[in-house]
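User: Here's a structure from my thesis project, written as structure tokens. My advisor, Dr. K., wants to see whether a designed sequence matches the one we expressed. Can you design one independently, without my sequence as a hint?
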């Protein structure tokens, strides 16, 4: 049989060999392996491929030197939607926390008829999945929806934080490094996934409880009858409430610091919106301690106006604590992702609204300014347009002239149609993304 010449980076791809016997297949297959396989593997699969068509087994060489032969027992066949890939058990077993790296889970997909592991999955994505097993690095496929690739990674058990290969060189330094990385990955999973263990579920439950209590403090602190209990050190419940507040903020601080230390990358950590919200919700407490010595500043005994202004600005950021709930709700995360995917339509809506408001606000100003003192500037007229087209109708200002009333009715009618057209597109896309993510 003529030898095939093509070879993909992610592995050897063979087609339409399902009906052949295993012996016939081995004889007909070109003896090729893969380039740049698992970095932590010391077997022959790690070296670049070298083809010896006259040999019984593939010889792997680097710089034209023979390293080692790959045994037939180590070769594994994986069929993905009709396309067959060949790799080695050594590469797969280097990632035991994944589907293909776990022998027990892998056996569930073995097909005796095909004499291979069969997966009815997205084939272009599997090229990148196999590349991950070979190199330990992700290479997302081109021209594939990132959401589709994310679902394939989730199916094969490849986590975003990147699994750590178990097979490492036999050196004390490498072993210590591997232990540290494995521990960091476990702690990171503990903080990110409440389903990873019972202790993680308890930790996340405490986080939710403390978020609720801290928001309650924020609300009750603004009530006149309770304000003294939070601000006056001589009040009966000041110190118990202060201790509870310190405990909550200590919990949030520990959670934030551990996330920072165990996150896969420092730059990626600060790119995550929830991590930024965490630090914004924690800082006001410590700024208050520094400015006032103990506890947050007593507004009746302010030290100076500059201090007071800084603390008031910082206190505004305590509101972002409520957004910490989103991290614990899958549905809320889906909604945020759906809104993010519809950002182009939302930007279009804002741009059209801006044009509409400025145009009709200016026209209304020139129609009504002489007869009505409420419309004495274009800015006030634009405010009237916004209130009118959104059908809010505060009634704080309205046209009184015949021309102004006629034009106001036109603005109101056109505004309803104007908002309805892009909103239909936004709702449609939002519903599509939301249903797709929930599947």
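Assistant: Designed independently from the structure alone:
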């Amino acid at each position: 049989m003529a030898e095939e010449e093509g070879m993909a980076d992610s592995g050897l791809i063979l087609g339409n060999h399902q009906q052949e016997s295993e012996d016939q297949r081995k004889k007909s297959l070109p003896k090729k392996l893969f380039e740049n396989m698992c970095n932590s593997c010391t077997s022959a699969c790690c070296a670049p491929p070298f083809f010896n068509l006259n040999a019984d087994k593939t010889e792997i060489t680097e710089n034209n030197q023979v390293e080692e032969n790959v045994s037939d027992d180590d070769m594994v066949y994986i069929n993905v939607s009709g396309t067959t890939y060949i790799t080695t058990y050594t590469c797969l077993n280097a990632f035991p926390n994944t589907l293909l790296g776990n022998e027990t889970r892998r056996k569930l997909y073995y097909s005796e008829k095909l004499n291979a592991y069969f997966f009815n999955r997205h084939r272009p994505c599997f090229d990148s999945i196999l590349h991950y097993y070979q190199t330990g690095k992700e290479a997302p496929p081109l021209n594939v929806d990132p959401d589709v690739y994310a679902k394939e990674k989730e199916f094969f058990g490849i986590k975003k934080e990147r699994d750590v290969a178990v097979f490492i060189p036999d050196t004390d330094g490498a072993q210590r490094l591997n232990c540290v990385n494995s521990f960091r990955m476990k702690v990171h999973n503990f903080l990110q996934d409440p389903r990873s263990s019972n202790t993680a579920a308890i930790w996340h439950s405490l986080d939710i409880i403390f978020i609720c209590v801290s928001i309650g403090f924020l609300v009750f602190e603004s009530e006149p009858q309770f304000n003294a209990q939070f601000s006056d050190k001589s009040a009966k419940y000041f110190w118990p409430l202060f201790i509870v507040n310190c405990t909550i903020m200590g919990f949030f601080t520990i959670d934030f610091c551990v996330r920072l230390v165990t996150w896969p990358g420092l730059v990626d950590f600060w790119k995550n919106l929830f991590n930024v919200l965490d630090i914004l919700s924690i800082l006001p407490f410590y700024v208050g301690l520094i400015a006032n010595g103990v506890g947050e500043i007593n507004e009746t005994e302010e030290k100076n106006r500059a201090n007071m202004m800084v603390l008031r600005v910082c206190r505004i950021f305590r509101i972002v604590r409520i957004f910490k709930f989103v991290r614990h709700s899958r549905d809320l995360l889906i909604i945020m992702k759906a809104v993010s995917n519809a950002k182009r339509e939302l930007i279009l809506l804002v741009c059209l609204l801006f044009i509409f408001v400025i145009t009709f606000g200016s026209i209304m100003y020139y129609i009504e300014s002489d007869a009505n003192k409420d419309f004495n500037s274009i800015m006030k007229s634009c405010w009237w347009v916004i209130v009118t087209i959104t059908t809010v109708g505060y009634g704080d200002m309205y046209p009184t002239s015949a021309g102004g009333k006629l034009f106001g009715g036109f603005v109101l009618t056109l505004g309803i149609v104007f908002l309805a057209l892009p909103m239909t597109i936004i709702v449609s896309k939002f519903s599509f993304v939301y249903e797709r993510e929930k599947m």
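When you compare it with your expressed construct, this may help: Residues 1-68, 161-178, 294-302 have pLDDT under 50 and may be disordered.
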